[in-house]
Structure formats: structure tokens, C-alpha cells
UniProtKB/TrEMBL annotation:
The chain crosses the membrane at residues 190-208, 215-237, 249-271, 283-303, 309-331, 338-362, 374-393. It is an enzyme of class 2 (transferase). Residues 1-26 form the signal peptide. Its cofactor is Mg(2+). PROSITE patterns: GGDEF (PS50887). It catalyses: 2 GTP = 3',3'-c-di-GMP + 2 diphosphate. One of its GO terms (molecular function) is diguanylate cyclase activity. This is diguanylate cyclase. It holds the Pfam family GGDEF. One of its GO terms (biological process) is cell adhesion involved in single-species biofilm formation.
Length: 601
């Protein structure tokens, strides 16, 4: 019985304390259900002088130096100094608290000074420079609680300084209205990060099973993108590293650098740029360490802001680089490039808006704020579905073949054995023919680039051993693209065949040979020939081609050639590669000087 009385007294005391405490708790100032925007009442002090003090800012305000910002959400881009912004809060009917919210998660420091007349009532500090727990409400948006006395108008001054782009969507909220406003947004972000995690785990499993470089780069790309979105949206600071404001500031440039480097590496591997677009591949190889260097430099004291600006600009440049590589790969008939272009187009459509908004070139809207998430999720899903579809096709084909093999194995063993024997015989004959023709250019009949790459080092080594000179002629048909454009590719092919026939006809017998280097370019290797002999042959070739028109089925053309000549009098001092480069430079010099001539290097 005594225990029951004691318990009843404890319950009564708790209820009594609750009743006593409720009047002491400050009431929240009423706002509309989705909050009250203060954007239209914001005023800005022009300039970003970081040395302006609060007293000076107030003097400027009294002198009318602050300028209204208008109705649009202010976006200032990257600011090297500090901005002063002010606004008025009208008098409240009763004493209450307002939740001041800056719907932005990437500002380093915002100092809030609240005045009633000439008396400063509150000084607050917001931003990533403080630990997350310093916020009035645990939310990714910057927020602070402002005490509003009954019947007194307040003037609020904000000093904003940040190494990230500065945007100031300022609102008044209650705790309920802020949570109501961002509830669906947080659900969408949860779905987005869930998709990223699923894609990361799925592609990691594929990478482990098939061990292909493209999947490794893709896994790094997805992980980097997830880190970028966590740091950019403030969710990482809210849930993963709330006690590390230093890492919150460094995470954004580092994750941007990781996304840039991994996206270019993935594109280079997936699109096979070394083969389909060599020049773009060379730029890609240079851009990957450049992105890493910018990310590391962002950690150096004083370089966070300039490196963050540089990385935001690099997002546009790197996107163009990858796009050009994908377009060139598609133009060269590389089918996976079409799927890549579609996926990449979805990403850059949403993603390019982000750096443009960061620099203040676009206003802050739903599209600029979340376009990157929309585009990246669509891109990654499309690539993953393409991969899954490819794997399904391969699996179905394997199952079909295995089923047919089981059903017909016994009766088809003899047929298969005979077929394999016949196939082996045909393959042997085909290999013999292939060995004879694989070193010849199918269009012109002269040797091809493969034969040139194999034979030139051997002829060079022979000349080194015998102490003989070796010469190389690089030949290019002038204005060949115009021939194709004006007369068609069939006429262009006829022209290539005729030029090759004449070149082969004038080349010396023995070890000297003509090879098609690529496109409309040919090469003649002249073991044992000195500079004078090489120049003499080059002039004969130039006259032979230029003086006799090329007669095709449809037309008669005057064709000229440009020649680059080089000779190694004492082979061994340089490599065959240097010989090719010198002849190539001489060829381009001949073209630069007007074509239809011979230049020597």
C-alpha cells in the first residue's frame, strides 16, 4: 500500500512540474504551414570587404547604403571576402521564438546579429565551421533560434563568409513547418542514396567476378558520387561526421576531384578511347592526375576557395572532354558508345546546372539544386540495366546451347566430329591465306601499317649492323578530303589505288617497300639509301603523280602529293620511332608551305 501511495505522489509531481514548466517555455512565433520566405525583404551591402565591422555595417544601413535584393533567391557565386545582408522582423503580438533557416548546407560561417533599436539582443553563429550540434534544430539546413519580444520590431544583420558558393534562401519556420517542408525531400534523398548503394554493391560484385578495369572505375565513380552528394547536401555532416567541421569543408572539393578523375578514367576504359579517340585519350590521361592534384591542393591552407572554384569550372570542362570522346567513339562505330552517350547526356543535363549555379550564372531552383541527383541516378541506372541486359543475353544463349547439346549429343557426335575435321581443314587453309594477305592493304594492294610497324625496326637493325644509311619517305595525297567530298568515296578509292600503283612502280626493287600508313598517307622505306637518293626518288614520285592525271570511271583528276623525307646516315644514334617522327614533321612542313613539294628533315 505504501509503495502505491509513493508511486502516485511521484506521478503527481511529474504532472505538476510539467504544468509549471509549460508557461515558462517560449512559444513559437506563428508562420504559414510551409514557412515564411524573407527573400523579398533582404538588403545587401555592395562589395565583399572582409574588414567591415558590425558597427560600420550598421552605419552603412543608416546611411541607406544597403540595396534591396528583390524577389529571386540571391545567388552570389564564389565570394573571396564577406557579405553583409540585413532584413527586418516585424513586431510580434507576444513574446515568442522564430527559427531562422538558411536553406543551404554549405556555408562556412554566418554571424547573426539581432537588434531591437540600438540594443543588440542576440549574437548567433551558424555554419560548417561549428560542430553540427551547435544548430538549434538538428537539420542539414543552417538554422538558429531568434527571441522576439512582444511589440518590438527587430533588425537582423548577417555576415556571410564561405569557401563554397554563396546562396541565401532565408526563411522563418517553426520546427514543425521545417520538418513538414523537408519530409518528402528527405524521403527522396533516402531513395537516391539507396539506389547509389545498391548500384555500388551490384557493380562491386560484378567487378569481383569478372575483374575488368571498367567495373573498377565505375565502382570508384559511384562511391565518389555518393560522397559528393553526402557532402554537398549536408547529409554527411548531419549523420556521418557531425563533430568534424574541418572534414565537412574538405570533403566537397575532394569528392569533386574524385568524381572528375574516376569519371574520365571510366569513360576512357569503357569507350576504349586509346583506340577510338587517341587524342582524347591523351587528354584524359593528363586530366586524371590534374583532378587529383587540385583536390589535394584544396587541403593546403588558403587554397580551399580557389581550388573549389577551379574544380567547379573543371566539372564543365571534363564533361565536355568525356562527351567529345563518346561522340568520336560512336562516329567510329563503337556500339557501346551509343548507350554511354544516352546515359552521360542524362547526367550532364542535370549536372551542368550545378556549377553554373555555384558561379551565380543560374538562379537557385529545384532543377539546379537537385538536377545532379536526378541525372546521376538515371545515368547509373541506365548503365546498370544495359549491363544486366547484356549478361541476361549471354546466359540465355549459354543455356540454349547447353540444352541443345544435351538433347542431340549422341546422334550428333559423329556429325560434329566430321564437321570439326572439315572446319579444321578450312581453318588451316584460311590461316594460310590470311598469313599471305594480312600484311597487305585490302584496297591498294601495297603493304599495310602492320607490316610497316613490324618491318621498319628489322630493316633499321640490319642497316645498323651493316653500317648502311636508311631513308624514310612519308607521303600524303593533297586535298584528299575534297576529292571524297566532291566526287564520292568510290572515286577517292580509285585515286588511292592509282597513287599506290605509281609509288610501287617507281620504288627500287630489293629491300625497299611501299606501305599504306593510314587514310591517304603512304610510307616508303629505303634501306641503304642516302639523303640524295631519297630526295631524288621523292622528286620523281612527286612529278609522276602530279604530271599525269588520274583517270577514274567517272572523271579525270589532277592529283598532287606532299612528301617528307628523312635519312639516318649512321643508324643506331636514334630509334626507328624517331625516324618516323622526323619524316612526319617534314611532311607537315611540306603541307604547311603549300603542298605539292618535298621537304627534308
Amino acid at each position: 500500500m505504501a509503495q502505491s501511495v509513493s508511486f502516485a505522489w511521484r506521478v503527481a509531481w511529474v504532472l505538476l512540474l510539467g504544468l509549471l514548466a509549460s508557461p515558462l517555455r517560449a512559444q513559437e512565433c506563428p508562420v504559414p504551414a510551409r514557412g515564411q520566405s524573407l527573400t523579398s525583404s533582404l538588403s545587401l551591402l555592395p562589395g565583399d570587404d572582409p574588414t567591415i565591422t558590425l558597427a560600420q555595417a550598421r552605419d552603412f544601413a543608416r546611411a541607406g547604403k544597403f540595396r534591396p535584393l528583390g524577389a529571386a533567391t540571391p545567388s552570389f557565386g564564389f565570394v573571396s571576402g564577406a557579405l553583409w545582408v540585413s532584413f527586418d522582423l516585424p513586431a510580434s503580438d507576444s513574446e515568442c521564438k522564430s527559427l531562422l533557416v538558411i536553406e543551404q548546407s554549405r556555408l562556412d560561417r554566418v554571424d547573426v546579429h539581432v537588434f531591437a533599436g540600438d540594443v543588440e539582443r542576440q549574437t548567433l553563429s551558424l555554419g560548417d565551421a561549428d560542430v553540427f550540434a551547435a544548430r538549434a534544430l538538428p537539420h542539414r539546413y543552417l538554422n538558429a533560434s531568434i527571441d522576439r519580444p512582444a511589440g518590438r520590431e527587430l533588425r537582423v544583420f548577417l555576415r556571410v563568409q564561405s569557401t563554397s558558393s554563396v546562396q541565401l534562401p532565408i526563411w522563418l519556420h517553426t520546427e514543425a513547418s521545417l520538418l513538414r517542408l523537408t519530409h518528402q525531400e528527405q524521403a527522396g534523398q533516402g531513395l537516391y542514396f539507396g539506389i547509389l548503394l545498391a548500384l555500388l554493391l551490384y557493380n562491386f560484385a560484378v567487378m569481383v567476378s569478372i575483374r575488368e578495369a571498367s567495373y573498377f572505375y565505375y565502382v570508384v565513380y559511384v562511391a565518389s558520387f555518393g560522397m559528393l552528394m553526402l557532402s554537398f547536401g549536408g547529409y554527411g555532416f548531419e549523420f556521418l561526421w557531425p563533430r568534424s567541421p574541418g572534414w565537412q569543408n574538405a570533403a566537397l572539393p575532394l569528392s569533386i576531384a574524385a568524381v572528375l578523375g574516376s569519371s574520365v578514367a571510366f569513360a576512357r576504359s569503357f569507350l576504349d578511347l586509346d583506340r577510338t579517340a587517341p587524342r582524347v585519350a591523351r587528354l584524359a590521361r593528363l586530366s586524371i592526375p590534374l583532378a587529383g592534384l587540385m583536390g589535394l591542393l584544396a587541403l593546403w591552407p588558403g587554397l580551399l576557395l580557389p581550388m573549389t572554384m577551379a574544380l567547379n569550372a573543371a566539372m564543365v570542362v571534363f564533361s565536355l572532354l568525356v562527351t567529345v570522346g563518346a561522340v568520336l567513339s560512336a562516329m567510329r562505330g563503337f556500339r557501346p558508345a551509343y548507350y554511354f552517350l544516352l546515359a552521360w547526356g542524362l547526367l550532364i543535363t542535370g549536372g551542368v546546372a550545378l556549377p553554373l549555379s555555384s558561379f551565380g550564372l543560374l538562379p537557385r531552383t529545384l532543377v539546379t539544386e537537385y538536377g545532379l541527383q536526378f541525372g546521376s541516378a538515371a545515368e547509373m541506372l541506365l548503365l546498370s540495366f544495359s549491363l544486366a541486359y547484356r549478361i541476361t543475353l549471354l546466359r540465355n544463349e549459354r543455356i540454349r546451347v547447353e540444352r541443345e547439346a544435351r538433347e542431340n549429343l549422341e546422334q550428333r557426335v559423329q556429325e560434329r566430329t566430321q564437321a570439326l575435321s572439315e572446319t579444321a581443314e578450312r581453318l588451316s587453309l584460311a590461316n594460310q591465306r590470311l598469313a599471305e594477305t594480312s600484311l597487305r592493304d585490302g584496297l591498294t594492294g601495297v603493304f599495310n601499317r602492320r607490316y610497316l610497324d613490324q618491318s621498319l625496326p628489322l630493316r633499321f637493325a640490319d642497316c645498323v649492323r651493316r653500317g648502311q644509311p636508311i631513308a624514310l619517305l612519308m607521303i600524303d595525297i593533297d586535298h584528299f578530303k575534297a576529292i571524297n567530298d566532291d566526287h564520292g568515296h568510290a572515286t577517292g578509292d580509285d585515286c588511292l589505288r592509282e597513287v599506290a600503283r605509281r609509288l610501287a612502280g617507281l620504288a627500287r626493287s630489293g629491300e625497299e617497300f611501299v606501305a599504306r600508313y593510314g587514310g591517304e598517307e603512304f610510307a616508303i622505306v629505303m634501306p641503304g639509301a642516302d639523303r640524295e637518293q631519297a630526295m631524288a626518288l621523292a622528286e620523281r614520285l612527286r612529278r609522276e603523280i602530279g604530271d599525269k592525271p588520274v583517270v577514274t570511271e567517272d572523271t579525270t583528276l589532277r592529283v598532287t602529293i606532299s612528301l617528307g623525307v628523312t635519312c639516318e646516315e649512321r643508324p643506331g644514334e636514334e630509334s626507328p620511332l624517331h625516324l618516323v617522327r622526323r619524316a612526319d614533321r617534314a611532311l607537315y612542313e611540306a603541307k604547311r608551305l603549300g603542298r605539292d613539294q618535298v621537304c627534308v628533315a
